[in-house]
Input
Amino acid sequence: MELSRRSFLASSLAPLIPTELSATQSEPAIQFPWVDLRRRLQHLYPDLRRHFVFEYYPWYANSPFRHWQQWDRVPPLDLAANTMPRLGAYDSRSTRVLEQHALWIAESGVGVVNLSWWGRGSFSDSAVSNVMDVMAAHDIRVTFHLEPYGPLRVERLASDLQYLLREFGEKRRWDCFFLHQRADGTQGPVFKLFATTLPEKLKDCHGILRQVHGYTPDDLWRQAIDEAHALLDGNFPHITLLSDTWDAGRVRAAGLDGIATYDPLIEPDQHLNYALNASRQGMLFSFNVNPGWDEIDRRTVEPGSCYQPRPFLPRTRELDWSTINDRELARQLSEQRILESFQSNLFLQTHPWLGNMAEGFFLTYITSFNEWHEGTAFEPMRDEIALTPEERSFEYHNPDEGNYRLRYLTELIGRLV
Output
């Protein structure tokens, strides 16, 4: 029976994923069932915009610069980004910047932001209250993505979750803390954990087996997760802890509730197998909507280093970023990836034979609002024509229409919300 289901799902999904994008067509010829999905999702989840979540990074500063100077960049003209943001090298603590972000996010139809959080007392922690004040004013909810912020993060997981719920939920009277509503009407917080199920060792490019930094055995994660549930479960009908990995078996062994992949290197045509495996393991799943990958290169590489620049995604021939045609080709490929990843999320999360529907769970993460280093930002870039001569000297990849990603995402969400 599993084989027949797998064959059915594969044949059902295949026509929905375009294999080629022409210069004038950014959608597949096969009609996607937008009307049916809109009706179904709105029936199950009346406040549907709360089920689309932007990954959000409150880690930028400009006095002094933070993050804009990664890998030997020299801001404010030379930024750690392959495209110049419309707002330039901004500060995440600026109310003016946050107001503009909130306006863009609200207009897109997205109702939640997932803050990258690096532990108590960190720069990102100090930025949370101001972010929440502005987001609350624009009816946007806030949740948290727990990063690998230190060697004791596993031991501190339960108390850190309690801290986030107390400081940014209870003390604010839950004015904009995100509580995810399932199809049965029950609500509870959702937290995403980064780098939970790492391999213990990997061979490097020289064939040397090396310990992976941050590796934690699955049984230690399970102890931490069990402690967190024991501490917090009585306060909510459910607390959902998701791992940003594709390995549902290890996620289950670690005691988490599901997978929520972050990495745009995972192609949308791989989502089906991961959804099947997650469902067999009793795990929830969510695959990120993303525009591909355009990560900055390191300018300084140590002799003997195994570092290799990551290629532009979706894969294509070598691009000449100095030409309008190639920048526009990159834009078209990015739109294609947005569409593919958006549709595969909708199809798999709402399929009756997969596990999310049985749990009444629908949640789609969008990578990202403003991760500029990796080139996944939906936050508007500058139009190419608006770049100054000094900025052009750094060979940014800005297309003619710097807002195209957010505009296209807004169109897709608008078909549902």
Observations:
- The chain is about 35% helix and 10% strand.
- The longest strand covers residues 112-117.
